[in-house]
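Sample entry was shown:

___
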Amino acid sequence: MFLLIVFSCCFKGVAQTSVIDSLQQLILLAKTDKEKARVMNLLAHEFMRTDQGKAKTILHGAISLAKGIKDARGLSSSYSSLITIHQNTGMIDSSVYYLALLKRLSDDAIGPEMNIIKENFNSTAGLFYKKSGNPKLALSYFKETVILSEKDNDKVATAGQLLNLGNTYRDLADYKNALVSHLKALKYFEEAGHKRGESFCYQSISNSFTELKQYDDAMKYSKKAIRLKTELNDKRGLGTAQDGLGNIYFGLADYEKALQHFTASLVISKELNLLTEQAKTYFNIGKTHAVKKEVKPALINFNQSKRLSLELRDSTTSSAVDIELISLQKDAAQLNAEKKIITGLETFTRNGDRIKEAAGYKNLAHFYESNKQFDNALKYTNKYYSLHDSIQNNELQLQLKKMEEQYTVQKKENEISLLKKDQQLNEARLERQKAFQIGGVLFVVFVLLTGFIVINRYRVLQRAKRQIEIEKMRNDIARDLHDDIGSTITSINILSNVLIQQQGEPGANHSNLEKINVNSAQIMESMSDIVWAINPHNDTVEKLIYRMKEFAAEILEPLGISFRFEEKGDIASVKLDPAKRKDLFLIYKEAINNAAKYSRCSNIHITLQYDGRNLQMNITDDGGGFDEATARKGNGIRNIRERAKEMPALLHYRTTIGNGTSVLIDVPLT
C-alpha cells in the first residue's frame, strides 16, 4: 500500500460497502498466498475507515501469510496500516515498534519492489511525525516519497504523496507550496477518476483557505468534499469534513454552528476510535467554549484534549492546550504560566507549526500585559504581528487566488478539449455505426440467402432420403410378397391342382383342403402385417404395443400360457421409422411363436424399456429351453438374426435346457 489514502484504481468511484464486498470475493478467489495477502491489505485499509478492530485482525492474518512466503512488499503494507491504527488508538509504543520493523524492511529492500517498500516507509514515517505534531520532520519524508512515486510513474500514488506533502506545508503555514501540491494532486486524481482522492484534495484546500480566513472559498471546497464523501460512504472522511466546517464557522464567529459541526466530528471519531482526531476536536470545542466565555465546558474539553495528546505523545497539541488553559485560568501564577507558554512556543518553533507559534506569541503578549510587563508585551505583540502578517500577507493571498484561477481555467480548457474529442469520437462512432449497419444489412442478406440455400438443400436431401426410404419399402414389400405370400399362393395353386386330379379320393381331398386353409390364413396374416407396417397411423409406439399385446393374446391364451407385458422409461416419446417398427414387430412375433410352439412354457414376461438412447425388448419364458447348436439350423432363429442385423440392433439369446429362454433386442435410437 503506497499510502493510507491511496486505494487501487479498479475500485474508483464505488461506494465503500461495494468495495468491501468485492475485496472479500477476491480473497476467496485468490490463487496464491501472495495475491491473498495483498487483497487482505486492501480490505484492511477499507475497514480502517469504519472498523479499526476488524482491520487489525485482517492485517495480522496478512502478515502471517506474507512472512510465510517472504513477501517484503506485502509486509511493508501491513506494517504501514498497523502503525496508523495504533497511533490513532493511542498505542504509540506499538506504532514505534512497527515503524522500526518497516524501517528495517526499507533498509534491506532490494530488487524491483525496493522503491515501493521505501515509499511505504517514507510515507508512513511522514504521517506518523505529522500526527505527532512535528510537521517539520514529516516534510523531509514526504518529499522523498514524492520523488520515489514519480520514479514509478504511478500518478495515483504520486497524487496521494503530494496530498500529504501539501497538508504538511499547510501545517507549516507555507500556503503557496501547500496549494501547489494540492492542485497537482487534484489534477492527477481527476485524470484517474479517483473520487476518494479528489474528496481529500477538496478538504485540504478548504482547510488552507480557512486558515487564510478566506471563508467563502473554504466553504466552496468543503461542500465539494462532503458531496464526494457522502457518495463514497466515507464515514471517517465525513468526520474530517465536519471538523473543517466547524473551523469555518468558528472563523465566521458563528460559534453555535461551529459547536454543532465539532460535536458531529467528535461522535464519528469516537465511533471509529480515532484518538488523534478526538484530541484535536476536543481542543476545538474547548476553544469555542472559551471564546463564548463558557469556562467550565472549555476546561472539560481542554483537559480531555490534554489527556489524549499526552497519550498520543503529540507535543504540539499538548502545548497548545497549556497555553489555552493559561489564558482561561485566572490565577496564572499558580500555573507557572510564563514557563509553560515559552515552553509551548519552543515546541511550536521546533516542530515548524507557525500558526500555533503566532497564537503563542499573542497569548504571551497578553500574559505580560496582564502582569504589567509592557515592554515584553510589546515585544511579543510585534513578533505576533510580524509572523501573522507573513502568513496572511495580501501578496500571498493574491498568488493563491491566481493559482486557483489558473487551475480552474486549465480545467475548463481541458474539459472543452475533452468535449471536442468527445464530439470527434461521436462522429467517428456514428460513421462506424453507419458502416456497421450497412455491414449488418449485408450480413443479414447473406445469412438469409445462405439459410435459403441450406434449407432448400435440406429439403431436397430430405425428399431424396424419403424417396430412397419409399423405394426401400417398396422393395421390402415386393420381397415379402414374393417370398412369403408368393410361395404360399404357389402352394395353394399346387394343392388346388392336386385336388382337381384327386376328385375321386375323399381322404386326400380333405387333407389338401386343410393345407389350403392354413396357407390362406398365413397369407391373410402376412398381408395384415404389411398393411399395418406401412400405415402412417401406426407410427406411434403405443400402436405397436397395442398390436404386440393383441398378438400375444391371440397366440398364447388359447394355449393356456400366461403373459405379462411391462413398460419402463418414457416409451411414449420413442419415434420408430416404419422399417424398424416392422422388423421389431416381426422379431417379436417370431419369438412369441417359437415360445408358444416349442418351449412348453406356462408364463412369458415381455418387457419394453427406453433409457433415452436405446429401446430394449426382452421376451423371457419359463419353458424347457433348447440346444442352441440344434436350433441354429431352424428358420425362426435365423429370421430373427437377419432382421436384427438389418435394423440394425443387437441380439442376445440366453437359453439353457430346462431353464427357459430369453430373447433380448437392443435398438439404438440416437
Notes: DSSP finds 25 helices and five strands in the chain. Residues 1-15, 331-335 have pLDDT under 50 and may be disordered.
